[in-house]
Amino acid sequence: MWSMIKGEFRHIIHNRLLLLSVTVICFIPFLYSIFFLKSVWDPYGSTRNLPVAVVNKDIPVEYQGRKMDVGKQTVNELKKNHQLKWEFVSAKEAKYGMSHRKYYAVVTIPKDFSENATTVLQKHPKTMKLHYQTNGSLNYIGQVIAQTGMTRLNEKIRAQVTNAYATVMFKQLHVVGKGMNKAADGAQQIGTGMVTLSDGVNRYVAGVSQVNNGVQTLRVSVAPLASGAQQLATGSQTLANGIMQYTGGVSLLGNGVGQLMANSGALNSGANQLSSGLSTLMANSGALNSGASQLNAGLGTLDSRSGELQSGANQLASGSQALANGTNSLASGTSALANGSKDLNARITNMIPTLQNSMTAMSGDVQQNATALRNSLTPLAGTSSSLNELASQLGGISSQLGKLQQAAQSGSTQTTSSSNSNSNIDAAKNALSGIDTSKLDDASKAKLAEAENALNSANNNSTTTTNNGNKELAGQIGQLKGAVDQLQAAVSKSAATAGQNTQQVMTAAQGLENSLNSLQGNSNAAISNISGQLTSATQRLADGANTVNAGATTLNNGANALATGAQTAQAGIGAYTAGVRSAASGANQLASGIGQYTAGVAQAGAGAGQLASGIGQYTAGVGQLGNGIAQLNANSGALNSGAAQLAGALGQLNGQVPALVAGVNQLAAGTQQLQDNSPALISGIARLNAGASQLATSLAGGAKQINGIKTSPRTAKMFAEPTALKHTDYSYVPNYGHALAPYVLSLAIYVGALVFNFVYPIRRVAEFGKAPIAWWASKVTVGSLVVTAMAIAEDAIMMACGLTVIHPVAFFATTICFGLASMAIVMFLSMLFDNPGRFFAMVLLMLQLGGSGGTFPMEITMKFYNVIHWYLPMTYSILGLRDSISGGLGAHYTMFCNTVLIVIAIVFYALLLVGMIWLQHHHYAGRSELDNNQELLGPEGDYDGMHLQERRPNQGDNGEQ
What we know:
Elements: H1 2-14, H2 16-39, E1 51-56, E2 61-63, E3 66-68, H3 70-79, E4 85-88, H4 91-99, E5 105-109, H5 113-117, E6 131-134, H6 140-222, H7 225-262, H8 264-269, H9 274-410, H10 414-433, H11 442-462, H12 470-599, H13 608-634, H14 636-707, H15 713-720, H16 736-759, H17 772-800, H18 808-833, H19 835-851, H20 863-868, H21 873-886, H22 891-921, H23 931-936
Parallel strand pairs: 1-4, 1-5
Antiparallel strand pairs: 2-3, 5-6
Helix pairs in contact: 1-2, 1-17, 2-16, 2-17, 6-14, 6-15, 7-13, 7-14, 9-10, 9-12, 9-14, 10-11, 11-12, 12-13, 16-17, 16-18, 16-19, 16-21, 17-18, 17-22, 18-19, 18-21, 18-22, 21-22
């Protein structure tokens, strides 16, 4: 066994390339670790070199009397912040830098940043949005660092804004305290005022009760108003009827007075007979006294009604004046109508030449369109002729096809028949080719194409046919002839239809042109006729307007005359009234005179002279009475009209009485509701009074509490930043390099073991004929020493390069244990399975990269890697190295991890022994897929041109027996 181990080392020493390879392999883990770890040794401590652009678009605003410029404050804070490399640029520069990979992020402070900060107390506050853009494709870790910086920046801005709000709120709090003192005083005044209000409400309630009582009385009193109004309307109608009777009596009285005046002469002549009739007069003096009394009473009644007559005369004067004003307006309107008709006549006269010019222009367009229509119809006639010519050509083709069919059926000599048929077919084809298809419809074109195809087929068949095929050729020609006949019939029909349609269109076009010419002539005549009619109509309209104007003038004159007559009637009624009073006075005098007359009858004889004088006076009084009666009779119509108007007005009053009664009822209901709600009003005033007292007390207490609050800038800062983080290290890891070192060191050791088993000839047998355990011992010894050297070199140099280790002994022990476990696994796979085993070792490396938990916590890793996590050797190496470097896991945990690694190494070294025994037993010892590499790395002078598997088992290192 020892000789085999010595031989293995002798091979290494004597082969300079192998010795150099083994030596370099020992430093591969260190080189792997140092280059990787130093590249990411402290990335989070160097974030001040990560460029981030800052664009400030914020516009300052005024808030609570102070200027708020959050954007500028943020920029000033960032200038003092060295967590990132803040570069303050314009929006254009930031966009250019992001697109040219200069910046990892761009922070934009929008223009409404400060404005939104002032909306916190508004109904709809707006969020202060700080925009930032990152480029994860440039570097994802850079994006994460930028996002972390933005989170801290956002927290800082929130603290600043909250501090500003708190400062303003504290100031307002003191203002509120002062205001609450004033409010408490005001509430006290409100309480005093509420007492006065309560007294006023009590008086108001009493007044409402009185008003309600009065309205209720009014409601009861209004009820008889309807019947009274009805009686008043009935009485007015009775009055109108009485006045009508009165006017009739006045007429009779006028007749009687006329007769009296006519008989005055007879009275004078009868004075001479007076003496003789005194006896008779004395006997009738009683009746005379009675008549005088009745006359006196009638004149008194007439005098009492003269006031109503005067009122009717006044209404007549007002109405006549309104009529005069209306006729003036009518006269002015008819004058305007006459002027408008003249203007209309002038406009119609000016418009007729324009209309005639338009008709002339339209006539020219009509002639031009008619000419174009005739020109467009000319090709239609040509199309009909072409279709007839085409039908004729198709008839010739059909006759030639008939000849071909007869020739095919006759069964004549093949050569002659073929020659004749070919000539006929060629003639038919030429005829078809000469047909112009541009004027055919789609169906005719299809049939023509079918005929050409059939001719081509017949021509081809005619050159190879035999006597037995004549019938078939005749059948084809018959089908072709039928198709041509159908095509000829269709073309003939199309030609006939086209000719007929063309003639119809030509006829219609000529009729249209004639109609248009007739329309032009008729339109000129119509324009002239319409012009005359319009001129005549407008002239008649002007004449009618003048006539109306004249009538309106006459009406106006009549209305003015009516107004004048009404005024005269008004004056006459005044005179009539005075005459009635005078007649009444004369009647009284007449009664007195008749009394005296009766009394002096006895003295009649002696006073005959006086009687004559009295009769003269009587005659004059009768004349005056006649004049008064005439005036009274003249005004009777106005008196009747006034009575009728009075009756109508009282009727309208009677119609409005129900609405008045309903309004009074509603008023009564409203006042009753006011009275019913008065107790609730009194109760509410009492509660309001109590609430005012409580409000005053509460406001005073609140003002005392608010004014007792003491604030300072530290209080505002407490509002803005109420919490602070206090960090305590359970275990201290200086930087990212120390955190990643366990993972990288373990990975480097495994890679070193993998490289060793690629480079070193592990299947080479140093001495043949030895036991398998000696072969196993030589390989295990070399591999273990090499991996131990790897671990020691890696750990020592990494510590010299700045890796701080808390437990150095455990650090070296864990690295060596993992190196032995890795060498055992890789050597077992490479020895037993050769190159496939090395591939499996690479796969195991890939699995350990993701499942060992070297970078991220396993709790956030995929489930598959969590399943295999505890079955991977690197898991225990990483855990042990973490505790060795920074602590925190416990010494017992490191011992547990090292124990697991030692067990793994022992198990796989044991499996390696079993595998090497199997290889030697099956004569695979010394045979490898890397044989050329094995020969190259053998002892110097050992290469003899033979592979190891070609040597005899008893052949020595130099190829000798």
